[in-house]
Amino acid sequence: MTTDNNAITNPLEICVAQKGAYPVQVEAGKQYWWCTCGHSSKQPMCDGKHKGSGIKPVSFTPTKSETLYFCGCKQTRTPPLCDGSHNSLK
Ligand code: FES
User: Fold this and answer.
1) Would you tell me which of 43, 55, 84, 87 could form a disulfide with 50, CB atoms 3.0–4.6 Å apart?
2) pLDDT tens, 23-44?
3) Cα(89) to centroid(ligand 1), Å
4) For range 44-52, the mean pLDDT
């Protein structure tokens, strides 16, 4: 028997976690995983709920410590940060 590691076992649709950004105080050099599916309960970061869906989180490592605004609607064109796309959601 073979195992297909790319098999979809968790069909998820990308959803809006929040119509707005999440401000996060980030630490320079620390790796963060931004949730792209919208289902994580640790928004805006991944908690693993995407597993088996084929959806992947986005890795982000800031170069300086500061407050950044992470996308909550999952529609940004500048992932993982907010670009205001939530303003055009209905
Ligand atoms: S839980 Fe959403 S990308 Fe991991």
Assistant:
1) 55
2) 999 999 999 999 999 999 999 9
3) 21
4) 97
Please work out whether the CB of residue 40 comes within 6 Å of at least one atom of ligand 1. Answer: yes
Cα 17 to ligand 1 centroid, rounded to whole Å: 11
- Atom 4 (ligand 1) nearest CA: 46
Task: Tell me the whole-structure pTM to 2 decimals.
Answer: 0.90
Tell me if 71 sits within 8 A of 80, measured CB to CB: yes
Tell which atom from ligand 1 comes closest to the C-alpha of 51: 4
